[in-house]
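[job 4417] fold queue: 2 targets
>>> target A
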Amino acid sequence: MRRMRGTRLAAAALALGLGLAACGGSSDSGDAGSGSTGDGAQLKVGLAYDIGGRGDQSFNDSAARGIDRAKQEFGLDIKELEAGAGESEAIKEDRLRQLAEGGYTTVIAVGYAYATSLAKVAPDYTDVQFALVDSEDATGDNIANIVFAEEQGSFLVGVAAALKSTTDKVGFIGGVNTPLIQKFEVGFTAGVKQVKPDAEVQVKYLTEPPDFTGFNDPAKGETAANGMFDAGVDIVYAAAGGSGNGVFKAAKAKGKLGIGVDSDQYNLPGLAEVKDVILTSMIKKVDVGVYDFISSVKDGEFAKGVKVYDLEQGGVDYATSGGKVDDIKAQLDDFKKQIVDGTIKVPAQK
């Protein structure tokens, strides 16, 4: 049941008025079709995006595809709210409260940045079923944790980078230096070294916590990539959300290659002008996790706790769009098999 006191309710109402203007906005789909819970009521789903929101061509857009699929198949009443740059924990907390107070009994927090705020909010709304993407740091009877084996997918694109590099110098650009993004780096480096032990992997993080703008600053991504390309790197893997767009821009200008993340970025309309420099992408199927969570709630099968989407479950993979890895696909698939059967154990920490 809800336990919000009057002062909290007033604060949330004020945040609703201010937050929509300051934090990027929302979209309502109250006229959506026939989706319902077990008692026949229409399922109301709220989505709180990470910085960059819908349209980042990467992480958030993958989550958006999941909710779009669920809406199409089930019919949902949806509200989407977006994060703003440099916002406080209080604003994140208010965003989640807005959704819960608005009657959205299924709420998805997209990104580990919501862990602290969700841990505070979830106990106050025991009739709301929450999902937290990319973090196990908030737990409870009404919290499902959707996490991924990013290191496994990153290993595969690291192998691709090593096989395709002509300089034996490749780069990794992370959006923000956090343990989660370090999983991408560690897996990528392991993949590179598996094929070419003497290859050089240059690493750059765009920002340090609590500054999370590294996930939505293409100019920073472009500058970092240019520095690597000028130092002899010929392929850069960008695990940096919207900042990766700048990495691709730099690769295009320098005649080099980039590796995408989260979505199959070669196929995204917003990146059409640079898709010819995208070697592959590490696909992280946040859309599948979001869809599965909504489906479980709809069917009355919500399960608290951690669900890991790895290579074996199809939660991560590498993309073949554009044909640039067709000639090494057999090798990549052999490595994939070795990871799935346990022959290769990919590290997730430095």
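>>> target B
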Amino acid sequence: MLHDADAYGYNIALALAEETTRMPEHSIEVIDLGLTWSDAMDRGLIAETVERRKALPERLVERLEEEEPAALAAFEGEQTRFGDRPSWKVQRVELNALSSRALVEYVEEGLRAHGADEKFFPPEEVANELALDAQREVIRTRARGWLAEVFDLDGLVEELVADYGEEPPDDLAGTMATAAAEDRAAYWPETVVEAVEAQLDERGPELRARFDELLGERR
């Protein structure tokens, strides 16, 4: 896991790994990649001062006393008051203090330190399935390209557009007004496109016949 260099981040790492009151039988191995306070200081990251309104959990204090006294000092901070309750001015360093590149490097460094730098490859049957999908798609793409060369499909399409794509639907203003009257949220460009589709649907047989004629000229 990865976390900020603050009491909350450290405590989350403990809670994930150890049993708690709510999960008395819980125990899993958690590899804590930080961000640790010492790592943050070694990298010259800037700490920020924030207010915490709860005392540090005792188990976190015990851990920090043994492992990171400097972090304990930063996280305990200076006790103040928030109304009639105690609070503490503490320091923390968040992960976003690292640049994107520095964060990736930090994570990769932690993974290598724990032996998690081996390249992963899927089972062969998974790779075979991907290869078959890619193979079919490459064949389809190349076949379409060859068809376009033989039949000059781009030219055919442009002729069809010239024949049927130069006359807008009748009374678009009325169509838009009607759509808006039926639905105030109607978006006029969508109304225009729907009118065009309806117009071409009406001329569908004629459009297809012209397409077949142009295709036949290219055979």
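[job 4417] complete. Note on B: The CA atoms of residues 164 and 207 lie 8 Å apart.
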